[in-house]
Amino acid sequence: MKTGNASILKLAGILLLACAGDAFAMLPEEEKIYVAVEGESKLAVFDSATQQLIREIDVSSQPHGMRMPAAPHNVQVAPDGKTVWVTVNSGHQGHGGQFSDSGHEAMEQEEMVHEGMAHEETETPTDEVVVIDPKDDSIVQHIPIAPGVHLAHVAVTPDGSAAYVTAQNENAIYKINALTYQIEGKIQAPAGSQPHGLRIAPDGSHAYIALLQGKGLGVLDLRTGQLETIPLNGAAVQTAVTPDGRLVLASLYDSKQLAVYDTNTKAIRYIELLDPARGPVQLYPTPDSRYVYVADQGHYFDQPDSDRVFKVDLQQSRVIWSLKAGTAPHGIVVASDGQQAYVTNLVSNDLSVIDLKTDREAARLPVGKEPNGVCIWNRHTGGTP
């Protein structure tokens, strides 16, 4: 009898452990990493705790039931963490040497028509913004903008009321109501300036825009809609704003520099990147506003591929560390606790996990073809700005 009881208790214990294991497996993720996989029409979603791929989200549109290839370029979580925003361009625009190529887009669209991929009644494939609910990673809205404009980056205001999107080939910035998903306006940038990256100040007063061809910094007053242009030494790819709001940073691809704009004094200084820098792309400051990490990609405009991420001390105005990532580091984001950074590697098709305590790569995760933008969603702290 005792033996039987012991067996029953043992079996019950095993069942309890199994149920507990299943329950643990079903717990929602506390923090997720979203990666725009530009060459495969998808977002890759990772659990930051386990570093496991948990989901792939197809962001292609399907007019008349027919799937149209798409190229997700940038992904951004709203500061309140309630939505995830993705810039999606029609066709696969495989950069192969530049940040956008409207001629290549037109050729892709023509090929789709000849191959019967486009329905006779459909319009020219449209670049759009896709909005995702991070609770279940479902697509809640496709927001069509215009054909062939190359939607580069998107950012959401701190109060969650509006999203701003750069249309590089149209030299414009669109304003979208983040609650109704309606387009509310369009701000025109200087002709030929090609606005690409953008970030919004922590107080929501201004958006800072990288003018790629215009070699400038666009300062957009979000209260008045007025855009001021500040000349820079080189082609600006992306901007960043330190969490204290004091400094605006811009990566200058051709001059291999970091431009630093002081929002109080309006002065600009430049920080030289280490030789042999190949061409910096995205950049991201640390939570204490002391450092910024810069992904040095190269690859575009006939530059060799790089494998470097630079750590820049903003107080000392110099690079203090160079760490190795994958091939052609492109996108970068720093976690809100300052413990890790995530870097997309455009050519090696993976995601580097950087331990910021040691400033070394801790892991390399396969992602898919041409990973581009990257951002973090946290259940408690919301989205990385």
| Fraction in helix | under 10%
Q: Work out the count of structural domains.
A: 1
Q: Architecture, CATH level 2? A: 7 Propeller
- Largest beta sheet, briefly? 5 strands, antiparallel
The residue-averaged pLDDT reads 88
Strand content: over 45%
Number of helices: 2
Q: Report strand order across the widest sheet.
A: 3-2-1-28-29
Give the CA-CA distance, first to last residue.
64 Å
The name CATH uses for the topology is Methylamine Dehydrogenase, Chain H
CATH class: Mainly Beta
- What structural category characterises the helix and strand content? mainly beta
Q: What is the CATH homologous superfamily assignment? A: YVTN repeat-like/Quinoprotein amine dehydrogenase
Q: What is Rg?
A: 22 Å
Low-confidence stretches: 8-25, 93-97, 101-122
Shape: globular
Q: Number of DSSP strands?
A: 29
What does this structure look like?
This protein is mostly beta strands and 385 residues long. It has a single domain (31-383), classed as YVTN repeat-like/Quinoprotein amine dehydrogenase (Methylamine Dehydrogenase, Chain H), CATH 2.130.10.10. Helices cover 10% and strands 48% of the residues. Strands 3-2-1-28-29 form a five-stranded antiparallel sheet, with no helix packed on it. A four-stranded antiparallel sheet has the order 4-5-6-7, with no helix packed on it. β4 (70-77) and β5 form a beta hairpin. The chain is globular and about 50 Å long. The N and C termini lie far apart (64 Å).
